Amino acid sequence: MICRQITYGSSAYLTPPDPEKPTMTATPPWGTPAAEEPQPLVPGRGYFTIVEQLTGSGDSMTWRVDPEPIPAGHSREEARAAALHLARTFQPRHPFSPKDRTIFRVDEDSYLVVVVGLTRTFHFRVTVAERLT
Fold first, then answer.
1. Which residues contact 24 (CB under 8 A, 6 or more apart)?
2. Residue 103 carries which DSSP code?
3. For 109, which DSSP code?
4. Residue 122 in contact with residue 54, Cβ under 8 Å?
5. Is the pTM of this model over 0.85?
6. Digit-coded pLDDT (tens) for 61-97
7. Is 36 left (phi over 0), alpha (psi -120 to 50) or beta?
8. Which residues of 75-109 are buried (b: 16+ CB within 10 A; e: fewer)?
């Protein structure tokens, strides 16, 4: 069966072909709107993953957000999946030669990752955040 798309406002519905003129209503005849297309991520909106880690060296080491917050999708679930992926794969600035990694889930939206190096142990945090302003 070939269907055609009817658009009403910002919603689109697939309807079976009708020899008569299609009726355009806010809700399709069967009562459920078609799934909306994912919206492109607008910079500054949506969810982000934030990595906090030590940067610098020697006496000038500082704890900071590095890299900049990373856009992670339109839903908290997408961002949580991205945060877990980062906790598993992100290469922090320290230690230089990582030997082992242990991931702790602090809550549903954040991880603490302990990375053991050749001579020292460091940690970093990965957090899911929704930008409000």
1. 6, 8
2. E
3. T
4. yes
5. no
6. 888 898 899 999 889 999 999 999 999 999 998 888 8
7. beta
8. eeebbbebbbebbeebebebbeeeeeeeeeeeeeb
